[in-house]
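Review form for a predicted model. The reviewer records the input and the model, then writes brief findings.
Reviewer: anonymous (R2)
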Amino acid sequence: MSKEHTYSNGEVTIIWKPHLCIHSTKCWKGLPAVFRPAERPWVEPGGATTEAIVAQVRECPSGALTHRMERPAPPAPEVAAEAAPVVEVAQNGPLLLRSDCTVRLPDGTLERRTGVTALCRCGHSARKPYCDGSHRKVGFVG
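Model under review:
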């Protein structure tokens, strides 16, 4: 199992999985009071409201950042029909599948993914089918 780091403000726990991180910079550019890459620890969950943290964590393109609510959230409103998954083409980057999914790997194993899954589009990832940020190193344009 790869190492995970957790940071909590008592209401929400931020979970960082460094092995999934593609260093998109969305976290620290979007919420610099919480995500501070030049400092240790680099995550300061007291730097913003729980709502702001949850919203920013959901923007993580690789799924390296996730969250867990520590206090029960109010019930979500009922949705009549399940929304279709959204696939976003990141400029000069991966395909971002914004939905829970199951990925069948070439050896037949299934991996359950939640939240956002970044899929390699440049062909250079060492973690195919997932993006590892290689598109920046090779100057992928697309």
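Findings: The radius of gyration is 16 Å.
Further findings: The mean pLDDT is 88.
Recommendation: see findings above.
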